[in-house]
Each structure stands twice: as structure tokens, then as C-alpha cells.
Amino acid sequence: MIRQKAKSVLFVTTTLGTGGAEQMLLKILQRLDRDQFDPVVVSLLDEGTVGKKIKALGIPVICLRMDRLVHILAAPFVLGRLIRQHRFDLIQGWMYHGNLLAWLGRFLANSHAPLSFGVRQSFYGLSRERFNTRWVIRANAWLSERVQGCVFNSFFSLETHRNFGFGGSGMRVIPNGFDVETFAPCPEKGVAVRSALQIADELVVGMVARFHPVKGHHDFLRAAKVVHQHRPDVKFLLAGTGMTEKSPQLMAWIDELGIAKAVLLLGERSDISDLNNAFDIACLASKAEAFPNAIGESMACGVPCVVTDVGDCADIVGPTGRVVRAGEPELLARAILELLEMAPEDRQSLGRAARQRVMERFDMDRVAQHYGECFHALASKAKA
């Protein structure tokens, strides 16, 4: 029996830095059947932290370094030459700018390879976007009916983009996935983290998110103050890029609220699974999301979550946690207190249900399988 040649797949991503969209691309590539697919990755910028890990898989990573005007002007032609030379079987864009450049490169190469856009965020209107990004989103919408597919990571994202003008028959949702072996309950790891932070006996509420206005850290800290007034035995752990004492805005909020002794700023961490195992409750106070990885990772570790009702958060958490309106610190505090007042065994039961929900709906192996099926369907649309 003659083995069929693996289909060559070009991924064109905006960045390969530390971020949820980039991490999801890495996890897909780690599980992609290499007997069926032969991937190449193009980054509009540099290889970042994720690019190094992709290269370690034996997958070529090509960086267009579009951080200078001369490279911006040259990038579509460089990509077009690459597409023309390699004759890819299919092309997958990844994030708005990656989608647009994938279309431009394919156009310049006069390629008939099927092209799919990858949209990794929800849409709350152009006014929330940077000026330069607005026209890129408009271009994505106009082109969406002229490409062969468009994959969203949440139903909320699909609906908000459809309402804006995205269309085409190939729109579908493939949710984010989680490695349920790496992210798993492990009390010993949690004990080690607590010991290192000298919070062995306190209750812990954690939030993992980069410091950005959309993540709602001010609301979280205001909720933390309310919780602290009722439960001074609770510690609040904040991890993520920018979550350090070097942030003047963050420190000003903490000092103003008078909760400095209750808050620990951990900065960017590489041991997120261990950290989650130190949480009694995980929280997300975001004002906007599509499908936040942080919540799925906490749930996979058996941690009940309190989240704001943005993006697909309510659907992700379901009955295993609490969902409140965004921008309402009092409601956030009330939900956190409700879980803290539970008997430990009841809270742990919620955590077990959260992990089971992730295993049933968002297991990374199953998500990667969905992408493989999507790529096969996309390749079938190739012109003769």
C-alpha cells in the first residue's frame, strides 16, 4: 500500500510571543499528525518564546520581522515567493494581521491553495481597537466571503464578527483546548507553591492574566477589598506579564484600597499548573474575552472559578462555578465569598466537576483532531 504524501500546511500568524493565541497554535502543532500534515509557520514579527518551541518540534519558522517600514513593504512579496516556491496544499491564517498577510501573499503568488482565516478574539466594536487595526479588521470582514474557511475559537467571537460583516459558508467554531495531563490536580505542587510564598494556611484566590485594561484588574482588586473586609484570612495571588511591583498603576490601586498585605504580585510565571494547584478559587474579572485559556487551565486543575460574563466564559464554566456581570466588583466579591463560605469538601466537589467538564468538552487531543478534520475539509476545496 502506497502511503499518501503529507499535505503541506502554511500557518501565517501575527506573533509568536507569550499569549493565548500563540500557545494554542503551539499545542495544535504538537499534536498535528505529521504523517498527514507537513507544517511551516510564518510569523509577521520575530520567533518569540513560542517560535523557539515550534522549531524544537522540527517545524520551520520563518520570521518576516515587520517591525520596520522596509520589512512591512517587503513582507507580502517575501511571503508570496515562499507560497509560490513551496506550493502549499493549504494556508491557515492566525489572528487578524496574519489573516490579511496570508491573503496578500497567496494573491501575489497566484496560488489556488485553499485559505482559511483564524480569528482568536471576540469583537466589541472598532472603537476598542487600535487605529491601525481597524482597517485590518475591515479587510478581514470583506475578504471572509472570498476565502474557503474561517475558524473562530468561541461562539461569541463568531457571532460578534458575523454581526460586523464576516460571512461565508466556511465559518465554524473550534474551541481552545487544554492538556489535561499537564493541567491536573496535584496537591503536592500546590503545597510547594504555598510554602515558597509563605501562605501555607490561608485561603487563596488567584487570577492569571497579563496587566491590561481589558483584563479588569482594578475590578478584581476592588472586589478583593470587599472580600478582605469579610475574610481577612484570604490571600489574593496575581500572576501574568506586568503583574509586579514595578507597575505604578497597579501599586497605586493596591495602596489606595489598603490591601497591600493581602495581595501577592507574582509577575509572569512558567509554572501555571503548579500555581493553579495553590488556588482555592480562580477568578477572571475581564471586560472582554473570546475563550480565555486561564479559566480552562484552572478548571482542569480542579479549581472552581468565578468569572465575568464575557465571551464564552459562562459556557466554559457552566454549573461548576459562578458567573457575574462584568464591571461589577461588588457582584464579583459576593460570588467569591459564596464559594469561600462553602465547606471545603463542597468546594472541592465543584472543582472535580470543573475538571470533568474540561475533559469532556475541551480536551486538547480532541481539539487537535477537530483541526485535522478541518484541514482535510479545507484541502478538499483545492482547485484542480
From TrEMBL:
Residues 19-181 form the Glycosyltransferase subfamily 4-like N-terminal domain. Pfam families: Glyco_transf_4, Glycos_transf_1. It comes from the Bacteria. InterPro entries: Glyco_trans_1, Glyco_trans_4-like_N. Residues 200-357 form the Glycosyl transferase family domain. PANTHER family: GLYCOSYLTRANSFERASE (PTHR12526), SPORE COAT PROTEIN SA (PTHR12526:SF638). This is Glycosyltransferase.
